[in-house]
Amino acid sequence: MKESEVGVYPIEDCPTEDFREMLDVIYPTSKQIDIWNVEKMLELSDRFIMPMLTQLCDVFLNDGIKHNFTEIQMLTLADKYNLFLTRTVECAREDSLNCSSTMIIKTEGYGTLTYEMKRFVDARYVKLDVQER
Asked: Residue ranges of the BTB domain (predicted)?
């Protein structure tokens, strides 16, 4: 392989800035995960199979003080990137501050969730004993 001879491996379909930011996040004492880069870090951690980075993003998302993602946004990220902690916490919350289960079910984002995530949301819906959808 020509790449191995020169020590350069091209990464297609990944902007240099995004890859550099990912490296800044994963190296010790470097850039923190924030509301501006968490989604991109999840995308790159999934693409490059980096469970440690996925876990850092999962932990960040569960500190509600650091971001203002809506409940459906959190569920969508948890679903798309298989974020166990985020899914568990969001589906266990009974005190939805901004969005009830009925509102989640009525959102456009609900339709994009996988069958498994819809089951989690529906189980919460039933647990809350909501009478109508």
From this structure: 2-62
